[in-house]
Write a structure and sequence with these properties.
Elements (H helix, E strand, L loop, with lengths): L7 E2 L4 E2 L2 E6 L10 H18 L2 E8 L2 E7 L6 H19 L1 H6 L9 E5 L4 H9 L7 H14 L4
Antiparallel strand pairs: 1-2, 3-5, 3-6, 4-5
Helix pairs in contact: 1-2
Length: about 150
């Protein structure tokens, strides 16, 4: 395990699951500005706190939001995204009337989610491929000898 990765734990799993998440307003309308942007970030931080999701970084552009988050795999990143989009849509549309008049819904149905961090894919692939070769020869021979001693002799 890498030394610079911080691992979290729930009762069952030790994990480090970081995701890059992006979603957009319906029709990519440029509505994430000024007070709407500030309030959206407040809402997402509040939801993250409730769900024990760590927001590592979050930034908006006028027509999309980027979030870098660490999410418990038992809870699931999509549950966080659904709750964040659902509650922020409801609250923002209630608080900012122009969002109701410009858009039938605040967010598109789609999102972009990608895992980040940890070792590069090729390194993990190579690590898995080399599992049988990584044992010390002495340990491997002990196991072979044990298996031979368990065989039924004819």
């Amino acid at each position: 395990m890498a030394k610079d990765i911080e691992y979290k734990s729930n009762n069952n799993i030790v994990f480090s699951c970081k995701y890059h998440i992006v979603w957009c307003p319906k029709y990519r309308r440029k509505v994430l500005i000024d007070e709407v942007e500030i309030r959206l970030k407040e809402i997402i931080y509040q939801i993250a706190k409730e769900l024990r999701v760590e927001i590592i970084e979050m930034e908006t552009d006028k027509d999309h939001i980027h979030i870098l988050a660490d999410v418990d795999p038992q809870f699931g990143v999509m549950n966080f995204v659904k709750k964040a989009k659902g509650r922020s849509s409801r609250l923002l549309r209630d608080e900012f009337h122009h969002l109701k008049t410009k858009l039938p819904t605040l967010w598109t149905n789609s999102s972009f989610i990608s895992t980040v961090g940890g070792a590069p894919l090729e390194v993990v692939k190579q690590y898995i491929e080399n599992q049988q070769r990584s044992e010390k020869p002495k340990e491997k021979n002990k196991w072979k000898d044990y298996l031979k001693s368990c065989e039924v002799k004819k």
